[in-house]
Amino acid sequence: MKIIFLVLALFMISHLPVVTAMESIVACIEDSDCTRRYVGCSSNGFCLYPSCTTLEDCAEYDWKLCSSGYCHDCLTNADCTSPEAPFCWTERALCIACLSNAECRVLDGGLHPICSKKGKCVQCETQNDCLEPAKPNCALSANECTNCTSDAHCNHFPTLPHCDSSIGECFACVTSSHCSADPLLSRCNITVHECAVCESNNDCTHFSSMSRTKCKAEYGCVECLENADCSKTEAASYCDLSTNTCKLCNADSDCDHFAPDKPYCVPTVGVGCSKCGDNSHCDYTKAVCSSSTYTCEACSEDTDCDLYADINRPRCFSGVCKQCATATDCDPTTPICNAQGFCQPCTSDSQCLSSAWGLPKCSNGQCYACLTSVDDCTTVAASFCDTSSTFHECKMCTQESECSHLSATLHCKVGTGCVTCNSHAECTYTLPVCSDSTNKCVGCTIDSDCSLYTPQLRTRCFSSQCKQCEADSDCANPTPICNTATGLCRACNNNLDCLNSGWNLPVCSGGSCYECVNSVTDCLTPENSLCTSNTCQIC
């Protein structure tokens, strides 16, 4: 727009008619068309300059110079001191609007060096026209350079991009966050508003993206000053003080700041501080250090528990090193497996019985099958408590005495156990035969089965028992009566015993039954009246 205006002005000036020195360039038809600065309208149709002999003659018309007998604005640009008309048109001695910045730079000591689009000399039209950091903002309402209020007003100062709004001036920095280009100059020295070397870690917080948050005195922001500063990743936990950078650990002490979670150094690129470096870094609950993850994992075989043998956890059960999982993993001296996986002595019979041993007796901390034969070995097949065996087992008898607590009538048969009999002699007349198949006394079947009972007169087999008789007919004098309750023959007690017996004899004498013992009293028939040999005969 400014260019169009200037071109048009030049065109008009170049085509003006030739006028005298007393004529201005202001066109008119009559005197009233001219302002008070002029004295009338010439015949050529231009307003006339006032005539003068001294400068005072021009003062009342607001002209600045008296030259060649007429009042004028200027002879040179230096005479045009108003920003609104800074350029001297020497052909007409008139101050007019500027055409370029060059005409404004010489005006008022260069205070208004910019020629505006309207031809007026101003301080600025854009921010770039304000060249003083103390007044970097172009206030377009007045085209004047003023103090800054934001960093945007300092954009045209690459080395002074930040506005201190408290004083309205552009500086290299106002806060330390503005010193982010060079970690060695991270602190804003407010006294001079320049970036300087850090004084504390707070001066390095804005370099966190570069991992340089620690202040090294008289040097600048670095990654680390000690190992504790290297906590971002386990793979770089060691502070190399020669470069103040975090690197791979060299020893477990380089991982102290990752304890207790990852206190061990694995000096392999990409690994570093880990939960473990070998099995010795694990515990019995997870005894194996994985060579791929360097974490402690469950055991899978007994050899994984070798390190825990000295604390009685030498075996792997369900991924954990223990001494036992059940009682059968323990030895007899400590037969009970407790909840912690340790073998311990028993304290009660019930504890032994409910354990995997299934043994009923606890004595002196050990589980046993028996303590005594009498109390604990109560079956005919295992009647003897062998206290010489590991668990005091109930075993088969080897001698008679090892069956006596079961029954006084039992006998020991080697290889079978406690039995009723080994021979007929161990039976009684009621069951006189020892069965070879069952070793039990059974009834007789023939008289010879009763041969052992001859001294008792029980020589015959009646109803499976050895008896002397089963009826009176089996007896004879002097014991003619059969006692069916005992199976033995007895003497008669009176005549009635004999009369009612199977003998049917009327006289009992001396325990024997007779037909007669006295002719007078016993042989009472005429035909047999004489008692001879205890029989009534013919006289």
Looking at this protein, list some descriptive labels.
mainly beta, two-stranded antiparallel sheet, 42 strands, rod-shaped
Structure description:
This protein has 539 residues and is mainly β. It has a domain at 1-122. Helix content is 8%, strand content 22%. It has seven helices and 42 strands. The strands form 21 sheets. A two-stranded antiparallel ribbon has the order 1-2. It has a two-stranded antiparallel ribbon with strand order 3-4. The longest helix is centred in the first third of the chain and has 13 residues, at 2-14. It starts with a helix and ends with a strand.
Task: Write a concise synopsis of the structure shown.
This protein is mostly beta strands. The protein contains seven helices and 42 strands.
User: What is the count of DSSP helices, taking H or I runs of 4+ residues?
Assistant: 7
Widest sheet: strand ordering: 1-2
Rg for CA atoms: 72 Å
Indicate the percent of residues in helices.
under 10%
What is the strand tally?
42
Q: What is the molecular shape?
A: rod-shaped
Tell me the fraction of residues in β-strands, as a range. 15-25%
Distance between the termini: 202 Å
By secondary-structure content and strand pairing, the structural class works out as: mainly beta
Parts with pLDDT < 50 across at least 5 consecutive residues: 1-19
